[in-house]
Write a structure and sequence with these properties.
Helix content: 10-25%
Number of domains: 1
Number of strands: 6
Number of helices: 2
Order of helices and strands: HEEEHEEE
CATH topology: OB fold (Dihydrolipoamide Acetyltransferase, E2P)
Oligomer: single chain
Shape: globular
Distance between the termini: 43 Å
Structural class: alpha+beta
Length: 120
């Protein structure tokens, strides 16, 4: 019985850390913006993948935006592979922007040049 109580306490103590790690609190809940740009890099990694695109600003400068998604296992099941977003590809990405204004967002979907919409 003592072992069960200890195991329960360990699980309860680590549950908060796991929930915080997978929190989406850093991204706007009600706002989804659209970003058009050129793929710089697709980081197909665990625990989260990142699609980095270069977006041209209104003043002609560019900013690299990062879009966070699930890891490769989840993306693969949704038809998104390591080579789905090669560098240089023009893409439109919709995402929930970072609450502090950083050029990062939670990836909602991405439209490929042929019109295919990829939902991570």
């Amino acid at each position: 019985m003592k072992h069960v109580l200890i195991a329960g306490a360990v699980l309860a103590a680590t549950a908060g850390a796991a929930a915080a790690h997978h929190s989406v609190a850093m991204f706007e809940r009600e706002i989804v913006n659209e970003y058009k740009g050129t793929v710089v890099e697709f980081q197909y990694t665990n625990p989260h993948s990142w699609l980095i695109i270069e977006v041209e600003n209104e003043d002609g400068t560019t900013t690299n935006w990062g879009f966070e998604a699930e890891g490769p296992g989840t993306l693969m099941r949704k038809g998104i592979g390591r080579n789905t977003f090669p560098p240089g590809m023009e893409v439109t990405v919709r995402g929930r922007p970072h609450v502090d204004g950083r050029p990062a967002a939670a990836w909602v979907d991405a439209t490929l040049p042929d019109g295919t919409v990829m939902d991570p």
